[in-house]
Amino acid sequence: MSGQSLTDRIAAAQHSMTGSAISKAVCKATTHEVSGPKKKHLDYLIHCTNELNVSIPHLADTLLERTATNSWIVVFKALITTHHLMMYGNERLMQYLASRNTLFNLNNFLDKAALQGYNMSTFIRRYSRYLNEKAMSYRLAAVDFTKMKRGADGVMRTMNTEKLIKTLPIIQTQLDALLDFQPNSNELTNGVINTAFMLLFKDSIRLFAAYNEGVINMLEKYFDMKKNQCKEALEIYKTFLNRMTKLSEFLKVAERVGIDQGDSPDLTQAPSSLLEALEQHLASLEGRKLKELSTASRYVHHKMLFGSH
């Protein structure tokens, strides 16, 4: 210790105290009690992500260590705590999680010992894949799609064509991982999985909003795109229509378990004539002929897409 100044010693003591306090809070948030993590422990950990003297790698590693246990309850709650901090904590945590080569490695997780172990282990594997994908999206796009500015002057509505065509598939992949959670309402049987589902529901609404705005922007630009861009855009749009169906099934489950649907998006499908107009335009660029459509149908996408935007 002789080489250290008094300030160094105080700083080290503060850091180790903070470190042990973090470990303690993580342990308390991830107890064997079959209920979601307590708000006071989550609030403390959110506060920690905003403190400059807190080591974000230490906080993240402490959470990751909790997923190395055999108990589905502890592992599920560690994932929930991580998800909660991704949503409400300082962006430094998201940046760190996105920078790691591996995050959760739970593809083979199985708790055979506990009541509900088999069933809940399935959801743990799916949930961990979604959180990995959420971090990967951030790594690829350097933005959290659930937190970006929305509206007519928002990020997705003002993005250029090239970036849109690169970004929309990243959103699609993240939404796919979320929708793969796939619970039936009768499987949401305890406070742990219910808490996870609530966080996923919130992410799904915000993620879809960014996705929808990006697709609207893409369709507005479609008739001015180059041939190869039109081709990619058409595939993105077809995938989008398919995801709307899957999302509406996910939201029905939320409705059945009593989650307030006030935030839910309007998933009214655009008329099939819009898809036909897009296909017709691409065919004309490629020198192919499809059945003739009225010129007007090519330009009505502004009004037809999910109501007026």
UniProtKB/TrEMBL annotation:
Q: Which SMART domains match?
A: ENTH
The entry's localization annotation reads: Cell membrane; Cytoplasmic vesicle, Clathrin-coated vesicle; Golgi apparatus; Membrane, Clathrin-coated pit
What InterPro entries does the annotation carry?
Answer: ANTH_dom (IPR011417), ANTH_dom_sf (IPR014712), AP180-like (IPR045192), ENTH (IPR013809), ENTH_VHS (IPR008942)
Superkingdom is: Eukaryota
Family matches, as PROSITE patterns: ENTH
- SUPFAM superfamilies recorded for this chain? ENTH/VHS domain, GAT-like domain
Gene Ontology CC annotation, any one: extrinsic component of presynaptic endocytic zone membrane
Q: What is its main location?
A: membrane
Domain ENTH: residue ranges: 14-145
Keyword list, A-Z: Acetylation, Cell membrane, Coated pit, Cytoplasmic vesicle, Endocytosis, Golgi apparatus, Isopeptide bond, Membrane, Nucleus, Phosphoprotein, Ubl conjugation
**GO terms for MF:** 1-phosphatidylinositol binding; clathrin heavy chain binding; phosphatidylinositol-4,5-bisphosphate binding; SNARE binding
- GO biological process terms on file: clathrin coat assembly; clathrin-dependent endocytosis; synaptic vesicle budding from presynaptic endocytic zone membrane
The family this protein is said to belong to: Belongs to the PICALM/SNAP91 family.
PANTHER family (alphabetical): CLATHRIN ASSEMBLY PROTEIN (PTHR22951), ENTH DOMAIN-CONTAINING PROTEIN (PTHR22951:SF11)
Q: What does this protein do?
A: Cytoplasmic adapter protein that plays a critical role in clathrin-mediated endocytosis which is important in processes such as internalization of cell receptors, synaptic transmission or removal of apoptotic cells. Recruits AP-2 and attaches clathrin triskelions to the cytoplasmic side of plasma membrane leading to clathrin-coated vesicles (CCVs) assembly. Furthermore, regulates clathrin-coated vesicle size and maturation by directly sensing and driving membrane curvature.
Q: How does it assemble?
A: Binds to clathrin; involves primarily the C-terminal sequences, but the full-length protein is required for full binding capacity. Binds phosphatidylinositol 4,5- bisphosphate. Interacts with PIMREG; this interaction may change the subcellular location into the nucleus. Interacts with AP2A1 (via its alpha-appendage domain). Interacts (via N-terminus) with VAMP2; VAMP3; VAMP7 and VAMP8 (Via N-terminus). Interacts with LC3/MAP1LC3A.
Protein's UniProt name: Phosphatidylinositol-binding clathrin assembly protein
Lineage at the top is: Eukaryota, Metazoa, Chordata, Craniata, Vertebrata
